């Protein structure tokens, strides 16, 4: 199963959620932020090389508490990346590892659209602050146009109830999918840098429980999208999020 | 169903434009087959062919009593007056039918590929602008890919496929680095790529065959003289060809005899057209550089005061 982790705005915590989701699903996390990668990387080949046709994605996996397919940091690598190679690369990793979580960049460009199109479903990461909601809605619309089901919403960094923050059930209503709040905890914030996912570091903590719940929602139901089974996607935007 | 067409030859390519006119009051689906030799180079957006195109032709829907324009490029060497496309099949379509070209021409199990192509075509390009990418990897980009090298050739060899392809597609010019940043759209570059790759091997490097390793050297007199003499030669070529256009039979025969035979005259015409194309690209690039220079104000005086 390929899960795209999206969210219109930068800085809402997509990477942290993607990393911890991969841990909770025992999957691989792919850093698909071709221009501003921030998952841990190494010295070897990375996603830039894969998308340039110079490396096998399975040979680029970096083992650790969570297996990562890292992404290069260079502009040249980003520029040379051919997105038409991404779907096949994700599928190759999926065949070996089952669940592939794709950390997508912010925005609505092709580097978000292609992983979304290649994914079986997506997880939308949103900030509970009301100013972040329009971007979340736009991203949900993009997923709809590309006919990728929205499995769940991760409402990230809900600590206390700061002024201007929205209730989780309200966000779920607006975006049309089940939402889980993820509290802002030091363990969650440091999980990527320290490479210690919350579900293994502090499995009883609030953040770990939230990630487990999200992982359940995301992996529930049939593992392959309808589109990959049979339906041909067309140019016609096709409405309706498919919650599993 | 009525098909009218026009073929224009530009730099060794056949540029085909067709009008497909459906004079019936019902919507029809039409399959057009390319009749020219050589591969179809379909129109592209961000490097991805438009829906409906494949290796052999194009399939589209034409509404009742309406006309659709179709255009593509073919790397064909066949004569220009040959019919470029024929109508292979026409069928009526009902309202309930899928009316997108992609849905018709590609199989259902290609759903993901369809969706990916669609996303690349319709969404914004993710890539950083070419100007922001250091050519030789010494521009503070970390350099794991464009690591410092000694010249454009080695830098190219170290570049991944896409970038290499784009560089291959750019016009030959006095400075490889500048030419690679030319302003033509990506789509054009894609469409021209296979031809240019071949072209760079032949002898028709009109401007400056020797590519300088150091792109910062001032333009040397010798290179300028070569460019000028090449343009002068083209002037003479054009004079010769003009004699053909206004001439009586005798003059025409003389011009043909000078060229050798009709075939070599024809190849001269093609070669000159290609040279003109190359010069046009160079002119665009020069215009751009001049414009950039004119907009630029270097605060030399302020710098001198600070120093």
TrEMBL record, chain A:
GO cellular component: cytoplasmic side of plasma membrane; cytosol
InterPro entries given in the database record: CobQ/CobB/MinD/ParA_Nub-bd_dom, P-loop_NTPase, ParA/MinD_ATPase
Span of domain CobQ/CobB/MinD/ParA nucleotide binding: 3-198
One Pfam entry name: CbiA
Region of interest (Disordered), ranges: 219-244
GO term, biological process aspect, one: negative regulation of cell division
Gene Ontology MF: a single term: ATP hydrolysis activity
Superkingdom of the source species: Archaea
The protein, known as: Septum site-determining protein MinD
Organism the protein comes from: Halopenitus persicus
Automatic annotation (TrEMBL), chain B:
UniProt feature, compositional bias: Polar residues: 147-159
Top-level division of the source organism's lineage: Archaea
A Pfam family it matches: DUF8080
Residue ranges of domain DUF8080 in the record: 226-294
InterPro entries: DUF7857 (IPR057179), DUF8080 (IPR058393)
Protein source organism: Halopenitus persicus
Disordered: annotated segments: 85-220
Compositionally biased tracts (Basic and acidic residues): 196-220
Protein name according to UniProt: DUF8080 domain-containing protein
Compositionally biased intervals (Acidic residues): 89-100
